[in-house]
Design brief:
Blueprint (H helix, E strand, L loop, with lengths): L16 H25 L3 H17 L2 H6 L11 H23 L6 H7 L10 H55 L6 E4 L2 E4 L1 H25 L2 H23 L2
Antiparallel strand pairs: 1-2
Length: about 250
């Protein structure tokens, strides 16, 4: 497996479970710290650099064969790409509906809390402004995190872990890491200058993130490419932003 790693890194890096878990921990800790800080300051620019680093990492560390090994190839089964997008959209709408049924549009709803992080968006935007804001946030949400997270979680980390532990244990590991990391986005909340932990909403959110991780990985397998996972993830973020701008802020 070391032959898939670029020559300068072969002596210290191999695609093994230890490498995969190390990547999940390092990126997870850095991301959580930056997101929690951004929840206080309202500035999320540094968080975007984490996603960029996730995207760049395989190009830095791996050979062309290594990148192909982790799924950075075109889909071999294009017929699953559209279903991937639809599954992502449906998953987000299920999360919205379940949380709205339990907590309405209060801060206990993950999408309502995430909406608070859109600090430059009015609480009741006009129809024309709403469309502009939606397009801006949807485009950003469909690019940075879907590409970065899928390259790391369903790509580099997954394949590193799967080399010895197999795909099943690998997908459970990266899905758990993905879900726990998202507590920084919702679950541990900062409202009116006070930190609070919302146990039941956090449990719903973490469970949802774990399950959507399985969906994303499923479409990686069905398409034969990370494109399937990225498209499903982008569909989730698109629908989440639609729900935020047209339901939560509607």
């Amino acid at each position: 497996m070391t032959l898939t790693v670029r020559a300068p890194f072969r002596s210290m890096l191999a695609l093994t479970p230890r490498t995969g878990i190390l990547l999940l921990v390092v990126f997870g800790v850095v991301r959580v710290a930056l997101v929690l800080q951004a929840n206080v300051t309202g500035s999320y620019q540094l968080v975007s650099f984490v996603f960029v680093a996730m995207i760049v990492l395989p190009w830095l560390l791996l050979t062309r064969d290594g990148r192909r090994q982790i799924g950075m190839v075109g889909p071999s089964r294009w017929r699953w790409v559209l279903p991937a997008a639809l599954a992502g959209v449906a998953s987000a709408l299920v999360v919205y509906t379940a949380a709205a049924a339990l907590w309405g549009h209060t801060v206990s709803h993950p999408f309502a809390y995430i909406a608070l992080s859109y600090s430059n968006v009015p609480s009741a935007p006009s129809d024309s402004d709403r469309l502009v804001y939606f397009i801006i946030y949807a485009v950003i949400g469909m690019l940075f995190s879907p590409i970065g997270e899928e390259v790391l979680y369903r790509g580099l980390a997954h394949e590193s872990i799967a080399t010895r532990w197999g795909d099943r244990r690998a997908v459970l590991t990266d899905a758990t890491a993905f879900a726990v990391t998202h507590v920084a986005h919702f679950g541990l909340v900062f409202v009116a200058g006070v930190w609070a932990f919302l146990p039941l909403p956090a449990l719903l959110w973490v469970t949802a993130m774990f399950l959507v991780s399985l969906v994303f990985y499923g479409f990686r397998r069905l398409t034969g490419s990370l494109i399937g996972a990225i498209v499903a993830h982008a569909g989730f973020n698109l629908a989440m932003n639609w729900a935020i701008f047209y339901l939560v802020l509607g």
